[in-house]
Specification:
There is one protein chain. The chain is mainly alpha-helical. The protein has one domain. The protein is built from 5 helices and 2 strands. A two-stranded antiparallel ribbon has the order 1-2. A hairpin with a 6-residue loop joins strand 1 and strand 2. The relative contact order is 0.20.
């Protein structure tokens, strides 16, 4: 992917980290079940980052003294989500619902480049 592609995807990747995902979570979401060949890597990465975005912890209230809510997966794309967010077992993206607009804090360019390099390496050796 080009530097411009990485910059365009930066906000989506940053949203994953803002929601508590680790580097391995992002890498796994981008590389599990990787098709061969990937014809348009930037489009593929964008699609995966949007479709598999973890739920926002702020949207998951936890009662005092209780454990966090149970998570389930979309029956179509396997994206994680709260049971009430998966109407008829499908996430909003699979039902064709528009994705919410989020404005996460940006990652520094060197961090984006490092994460992109890891994804490329995993895809090449996957």
């Amino acid at each position: 992917m080009s530097a411009a592609d990485c910059e365009a995807l930066e906000a989506l990747a940053a949203e994953w980290f803002a929601r508590g995902a680790g580097e391995e979570d992002v890498l796994r979401a981008l590389t599990d079940g990787l098709p061969v060949p990937v014809h348009y890597p930037a489009g593929f990465v964008q699609s995966r980052l949007v479709a598999k975005l973890p739920p926002d912890p702020a949207d998951m209230p936890v009662a005092p003294g209780r454990v966090a809510a149970v998570m389930v997966e979309c029956g179509t794309c396997r994206a994680p989500g709260r049971p009430e967010a998966l109407s008829d077992g499908e996430c909003g993206a699979c039902r064709g619902a528009p994705a919410p607009v989020r404005h996460p804090a940006a990652l520094p360019p060197d961090r984006v480049r490092a994460l992109a390099a890891e994804a490329r390496s995993a895809a090449a050796h996957g």
